[in-house]
């Protein structure tokens, strides 16, 4: 059993929060998936969409965005604390806790630097790796869960923004801005139908990415508890 470092702080509680928020996000995505699928099916059969469902979808996207912001804040705190802990374990050549957060906001570099940070945390948290000189974690194999989380997450964002750009620049957003002035609702329904395909695809990819993210968070949290000596 490892000795507890004075600077170690358990991430068990915040990991539970992050996992629970991620699970809520999955359920929210599933609800949105069902709604978008039903709208598309309705258009295929009747060439119209229920305006009430479109309004509900618009409101759900707002709620989904708020949930995403809250989850992101908790995730950044989790990354900071998890990164700080691997420093307390004696890991060398790893990103500082501050930069573990900052990299998420640096354009272009945020496409791979946060992934590198996650890999460092994952490897250095593994209690089976003895950190004698602090660099042994580098020889550990690359974690598949982290890789799949990141790759799927990038694909999710790519497809989601394609759908959003199509919806916005094709005039779909006019439905919510100028709803009472729109005469040609068929064009709006048609735009919603095609954009829904991309949204449905992005949601499925996003759910898969979140599942791997949950696995990563739970594994790292468990390993850090064991390495610290709080758990055997």
How is the topology of this model organized?
Elements (H helix, E strand, L loop, with lengths): L11 H35 L4 H38 L8 H6 L10 H13 L18 H26 L4 H4 L7 H44 L4
Helix pairs in contact: 1-2, 1-7, 2-4, 5-7
Q: Spell out the helices and strands N to C.
A: HHHHHHH
- The percentage of residues in β strands lies in under 5%
Alpha-carbon Rg, integer: 22 Å
Low-pLDDT runs of 5+ residues are: none
State the total count of DSSP E strands: 0
Please supply descriptive tags for the structure shown above.
single chain; 232 residues; mainly alpha; 0% strand
Task: Describe it.
- The protein has 232 residues and is mainly alpha-helical.
- The protein has one domain (12-228).
- The protein is built from seven helices and no strands.
- The chain has helices at residues 12-46, 51-88, 97-102, 113-125, 144-169, 174-177, 185-228.
- The model has no long low-confidence stretch (mean pLDDT 87).
